[in-house]
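Troubleshooting entry. Yesterday's outputs looked truncated, so today I'm pasting the complete records for two proteins to confirm everything comes through intact. If either block looks cut off, that's the bug. Protein one:
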Amino acid sequence: MTMNPMNWPVVYPELLLLVMACAVALLDLFVTDAKRRPTFWLAQISLAAVAMLHWVYYDGGATVYGMQRMVVGDPMGHLLAFFATVAVMITIAYAQPYITSRDMLKGEFFSLTMFALLGICVMCSANNFLVVYLGLELMSLSLYALVAMRRDHGVSTEAAMKYFVLGALASGFLLYGLSMMYGATRSLEINEVFNAISTGRINGTVLTFGVVFVVAGLAFKLGVVPFHMWVPDVYQGAPTAVTLLIGGAPKLAAFAITIRLLVEGMLGLAVDWQQMMMVLAVASLVIGNLAAIAQTNLKRMLAYSTISQMGFMLLAMTAGVVSGNTLSAGNAYSSAMFYVVSYVITTLGTFGLIMFLARTGFESEEISDLAGLGKRAPWLAGIMTLFMFSLAGVPPLVGFYAKLSVLQALITTNIAGYIVLAVIAVMLSLVGAYYYLRVVKVMYFDEPTDASRPLQGSGVSALLAVNGLAVLGFGLLPGGLMAMCRDAILRALAT
């Protein structure tokens, strides 16, 4: 572990992303091609370079501090940033035909998306409260602007306003909690906060309030109950391309700052925040799954699905510290990380397929719009079935192994309360399977209301096929991805 005060190489990926985001915005001023091909390809090449850089750093395995210890480059941060960058690349590829047909194909879509990713990467590498907040605001402000890109579309404008107001409130919660943590521990550095808590050099009352506000702020970014109010409205109201962006890479960032703040900074207070997580997780599973059953809008149903999925992930976060020891921490947190990565892989394909089915004047957002897809486009219906079954946790898909790893983390604690949580999670997952299977039933057993066939032979269709194979492949052979997550988490805990 090296401790050079500035150590610029630690932030090379973020610096490259910042420079290229500005370059994309400038290049687009001179692009005359209506399909914005030069802008698209420059953005994709830039993101590929950033992803490669993060992968090289992750593969190196070192933990390095920089910017006077405000930033940390460790395997967990680089791996999450790598996945986030790949997710954004896939999002842009899925989105290009969709935004072209809706007069949204402008340079600011690409540059704002890259700035949102920059915020995500900053959060993944943060080792200081101020850096966490800086990355959070950079990501959030970019997403607010993207949701509102269709200025003449009333529903999108309404969604943007709700997202902005509730997002500002949540940011305030988090900032207030972090300021209390600073007041209680006299440090903004996450490692120093951990040391202060472990040595007892703290103001206990202020610290308790700080933890409550921090957890509330994190819960909003994860979109779990009772801080979920924005999720269904924003998912439904935003353009589907932006919905995919919100539902993908930012979940990795939310997981990253949850680990940074609660595990690396406040593990000594795990007894307090784990109890809060249990309540949030169970409430999210109950409300998310039950509310999703009543939805007819596919994007809104997937929004409530996201709430329940994030609740399931939080269950693993509750099993890190058991009876005062941290023996199960690596297993629990790596299961949570694997779950988030698996969810993002699946949700990319789900919303990508919704965009692929959409066309000018038709959004394909209602569940009924998928009626007869098994007859109109069997291969698309097959891929969508893979995604639905994965979200439901049906073997041998990656969603099944993700759920299994979380349940295993709960059961191996050998504590009755955690085993009860695992049973509750299984029962509510069975409830959730209903609305996923309903989508499959509509595709194969309902008569088509639209005789048109989706476009064939495009690059997006090939990407959907690869996405579907990834969901199947990581389910059949989950060991490699799980080992990467476990190694990254163990290295993060070691520092």
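Protein two, checking that the full record survives here as well:
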Amino acid sequence: MRLFARRHTPLIGLDISSSAVKLLELSRDGEHYRVQSFGATGLPANAVTEKQITDPEVVGRVVAGLVKQSGTRTRDAAIAVAGSSVITKVIQMPASLQDEEMEQQIRFEADQYIPYPVEEVNLDFQVLGPNPKDTHLADVLLAACRSDTIEMRQAALEIAGLKAHVVDVEAYALETACSLLAGQMPNQGRDCIVAIVDMGATTTLVNIMNDMDTVYMRDQLFGGVQLTEEIMRRYGMSMDEAGRSKKTGRLPESYAEEVVPAFMEDLVQQIDRSLQFFFSSSGQHETVDQILLSGGCANLPDVDHVVERELGIPTAIAQPFHDMTLAPRINSARLKSEGPAMVIACGLALRAFD
């Protein structure tokens, strides 16, 4: 299985996170996209732990139900693995090599770049372009993921009657989806720096774009599960009860007055910490022009206003479906509500048009 496998259409984007599964299928007419199929549903606790599938049988049944609910007939999927599961490295190779020759040489020299036996990993590469210091060399992005991580995802998909044709990396799927968010950015993202902050259940991904090119990526172990756990502790609920109550908002007044503000304070600190890491690593930037929030936590009331007020940076909620048309069976209100949490699924679905 190639991590950057080439197009196989039609294709559904399937984002399997620690707490939910999101499904999206797009079609395209010229430059305009149309939502053909869509769905999102929660996962039982412990079916996925720290982005690793631990119970493919359970995950497979959930995915099968979501496929049926969405109405899609497509059985080929693009999935993603967490960045923490993948080793990436930019290496230099002779620019004259063909892809087949490059692949042979990379596999022969893999032990120089990867701390695992080559037979235990899935390897892939992508040529980034000429090396700026030596035009006889090409910069090549090498990606490697332990085979068992991918095999667990494949097993879940097979139970659901699907086949994985593309295995991407979450951070790269987020980067791909940024093309759908350009309309929300200052000057369509050109000549400006935008931080995309995808806040999931257990992990927050930060992708900083300069002129629509990624210049910084960071994963943080922080997400909505901290809020869920606080609801459990404070109100004596189980994990499932807390998750449902958080989504419906059926909680005591103290939730909005005390619990949410404390969580948002932590969230702002996490975003600020990532920005400070970026500023110190770049050595040439001291601010960003905009923050776009995505992921499940982006649905917290007024979270964009809180982040903007505390950090002094214009902030908005990502709306990837803003300029898309919808198939008749799509529930537009639900799609709009789920939109911020569907950004990685969007990036995966876009792989159908590589």
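Both blocks look complete. Sanity check on protein two: The chain is about 35% helix and 30% strand.
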